[in-house]
Specification:
This protein is an alpha+beta fold. It has a single domain, classed as Metal Binding Protein, Guanine Nucleotide Exchange Factor, Chain A, CATH 2.170.150.70. The chain contains five helices and 13 strands. The strands form three sheets. Strands 10-3-4-9-8-7-6-13 form an eight-stranded mixed beta sheet. Strand 7 and strand 8 form a beta hairpin. The longest helix is centred in the C-terminal third of the chain and has 17 residues.
């Protein structure tokens, strides 16, 4: 029997489901990259960052995800022109998650968009990535058991296998190979 996690924006207008359970089709990391921080700061959702500037991200294949209601509120932005697609709910400016593009099967949900407690449902974070962008030194015990290199290598392997298995579709964030909301680029917005 498939277990599901509930995805919800802060005001409850956007609702979705994520099939979970099989370890191979999920990953949980703490990301300290400056783009994650810029995204959450832009939305005014700093509460999704830990005190070191990290974002708890639950990664799954796109085919595990469905948006049940609130499609009309989903918006996309990129921090830089070549950056990943970062999704949020325009109704309340709450972050939902990240995708690479329509061809790659990865959806990384910001943990604040998941209703259930991730520690008890999927387990602790596997490790931390992009620690050099943390806003203060991170204690070793907070980083998780796997290094940046181990996390990245594991995700590359998973992504290639997920893609070969056709796990990029269906993807609720894309239609006919294009994002359902034209991505706004924060870097271009600052220049204007």
């Amino acid at each position: 029997m498939t277990e599901y996690l509930d995805v919800r924006c802060d005001c409850g207008s956007v609702n979705g489901k994520v099939a979970c359970g099989q370890c191979f089709f999920q990953n949980r990391v703490m990301c300290y990259c400056d783009d994650c921080q810029a995204f959450l700061n832009h939305l005014g959702h700093e509460k999704s960052l830990n005190k070191y500037g990290g974002t708890d991200v639950y990664q799954v294949s796109a085919s595990q995800v469905s948006i049940v209601s609130g499609h009309e509120h989903l918006r996309c932005l990129k921090v830089t022109p070549k950056g990943v697609h970062r999704w949020y709910a325009s109704c309340c400016n709450s972050p939902i998650g990240n995708t690479i593009n329509a061809q790659w099967p990865l959806v990384g949900f910001i943990s604040s968009s998941i209703v259930q407690d991730l520690d008890s449902t999927v387990g602790p974070i596997k490790g931390s990535v992009f620690c050099k962008f943390a806003n203060q030194p991170i204690p070793k015990e907070k980083k998780g058991p796997r290094s940046h290199k181990q996390i990245v290598a594991t995700m590359i392997i998973k992504l290639l296998i997920w893609r070969a298995l056709g796990k990029a579709r269906p993807n609720p964030f894309y239609r006919a190979g294009k994002a359902i909301s034209k991505p706004l680029c924060l870097t271009n917005e600052k220049r204007n």
